[in-house]
Amino acid sequence: MSSRPDRERTAPAVLVRGVRDVARLALPVVCPGCRTPDVRWCADCLAVLDAPPWRCEATAPRLDRLDDVDPLPVWALAGYAGGLRDVVVAWKDRGRADLDAPLRAAARRAGERLRPVLASGPVLVAAAPTSRAARRTRGRDPVAGLAAAFAAGLGAPARTVHVLGQRGLARDQVGLGSRARGDRLRAVELARGPRVRRALGAAPSVLLVDDVLTTGATLAACETALARAGIPVLGAFVLAATPSPRSDP
């Protein structure tokens, strides 16, 4: 027969399990990629993010400069399709902030792998701008978290500072078509302030970070805003890229 102290020690554990079970009934937890119940995310749905980064700019028509200049180099970890697409949508637009942990870990691993290519000297890592309305709705800036993780993977020569913003009441891109994305992103501009000026003065070039590459309109607008200030962009990193019908990463 168990002693009273033993029963007292096990009571909190039983209570915690009971609260957890009730919470699961009220707010069921599922992997957004495969809908497996009682799993926040599963290894199979995120396994594609363990792949080495690959160049994907050829799939983005808005990055084509049309003047015999190569498009901006962009590295991705996976194609934006299948379970990963559902994971990214849940993370960014359905309140699944718990997915910050595995997706930031993937961005950090990518930074470590790309360190020999991109971090030979001081470089500033800049997140693609998020509309103020989207930040208020989400309560956070998911892409800024990716940028910080990617910079950590690159190591000491890299740092991240908020250097890009948007003018006016720009809408978020969710649900917008290609032309509307381009129109909206004409509002991208360089952020102001002494901290931004100091950061740009200390880093001769910039790396961009975004979650998904589709048409390339976001990265093209960011590159244009930096180019107006005479700041070169080395390249960009994204978690996933929309696959081209003619390519197989």
List the defining traits of the structure above.
9 helices; globular; two-stranded antiparallel sheet; 249 residues; six-stranded mixed sheet
Describe this structure in words.
This protein is of the alpha/beta class. Helices cover 43% and strands 16% of the residues. The longest helix has 23 residues, at 4-26. It starts with a helix and ends in an 8-residue tail after the last strand.
How many whole angstroms does the radius of gyration measure? 21 Å
Principal-axis shape equals globular
Total of DSSP H or I helical runs spanning 4+ residues: 9
Class computed from helices, strands and strand pairing = alpha/beta
Report the mean per-residue pLDDT as an integer: 81
Secondary structure tally: strands: 8
Kindly estimate the percentage of residues that lie in beta strands according to DSSP.
15-25%
Task: Quote the distance from N terminus to C terminus.
Answer: 62 Å
Overall helicity: 40-55%
| Series of H and E elements | HHEEHHEHHEEHEHEHE
Q: Runs with pLDDT <50, length 5+?
A: 16-26, 173-178
Spatial order of the strands forming the largest sheet: 1-2-8-7-3-4
Short description:
The chain contains 9 helices and 8 strands.
Secondary structure layout:
Elements: H1 4-26, H2 43-46, E1 54-55, E2 74-79, H3 82-93, H4 100-118, E3 123-127, H5 132-138, H6 142-154, E4 158-160, E5 164-166, H7 178-184, E6 188-190, H8 194-202, E7 206-213, H9 217-228, E8 233-241
Parallel strand pairs: 2-8, 3-4, 3-7, 7-8
Antiparallel strand pairs: 1-2, 5-6
Helix pairs in contact: 4-6
